[in-house]
């Protein structure tokens, strides 16, 4: 019964005079509910990943990550490679990929997003506690990397930061 309710919710559109859609987030949250209750949700999640509203696309990416089915990774990668413009959607797609397949997602992220969206890539890696990947990309992105390394809380990352502080010139370490 819940599955039917979520499926119906994913189809609701409420256009406003401003051109926005008042039901965009409802569709996204119903997608998450559907992913939690149905293993046959992928067809609907695919449609919502192409929704015109970025909040719906971002929530659909979250739902695909929670759904956990391997084919969902390809949908997320396709969304990311289809010139997605909204940072929130890109971030949620990257987070879902890192949740589903951390090793494969790191390689994909480094290949496709490190140059074009370094701050989103580094943030996604930090949120996923991928300290090894963060340390590997250190030379090119030091400014963005230091807070991200601190966020991971991993002992290796903390040790790296302590070494940087210890070896920094006195005026910069204060």
Task: Summarize the SSE layout with pairings.
Blueprint: H1 2-9, H2 24-37, H3 42-49, H4 54-67, H5 71-81, H6 87-100, H7 102-112, H8 118-127, H9 131-136, H10 142-152, H11 155-167, H12 170-173
Helix pairs in contact: 1-2, 2-3, 2-4, 3-4, 4-6, 5-6, 6-7, 6-8, 8-10
Give your account of this protein's structure:
By secondary structure, the protein is an all-alpha fold. Helix content is 71%, strand content 0%. The protein is built from twelve helices and no strands. It has helices at 2-9, 24-37, 42-49, 54-67, 71-81, 87-100, 102-112, 118-127, 131-136, 142-152, 155-167, 170-173. The model has no long low-confidence stretch (mean pLDDT 83).
Distance between the termini: 60 Å
Cα radius of gyration in angstroms: 19 Å
- Structural category is mainly alpha
Could you give the count of β-strands?
A: 0
Net shape: elongated
Describe the oligomeric state of these chains in a short phrase. single chain
Overall pLDDT metric: 83
The helix tally amounts to 12
Largest beta-sheet details: none
Into which percent range does the helicity of residues fall? over 70%
């Amino acid at each position: 019964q819940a599955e039917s309710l979520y499926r119906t919710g994913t189809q609701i559109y409420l256009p406003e005079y401003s051109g926005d859609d008042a039901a965009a987030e409802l569709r996204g949250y119903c997608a998450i509910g559907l992913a939690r209750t149905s293993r046959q949700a992928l067809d609907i999640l695919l449609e919502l990943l192409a929704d015109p509203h970025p909040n719906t696309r971002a929530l659909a990416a979250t739902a695909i990550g929670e759904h956990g089915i391997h084919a969902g990774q390809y949908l997320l990668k396709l969304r990311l490679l289809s010139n997605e413009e909204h940072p929130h959607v890109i971030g949620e797609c990257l987070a879902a990929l890192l949740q589903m397949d951390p090793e494969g997602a790191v390689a994909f992220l480094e290949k496709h997003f490190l140059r074009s969206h370094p701050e989103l890539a580094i943030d996604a890696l930090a949120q996923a506690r991928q300290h090894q990947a963060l340390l590997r990309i250190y030379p090119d992105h030091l400014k963005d990397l230091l807070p991200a390394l601190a966020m991971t809380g991993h002992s290796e990352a903390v040790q790296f930061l302590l070494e940087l502080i210890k070896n920094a010139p006195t005026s910069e370490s204060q």
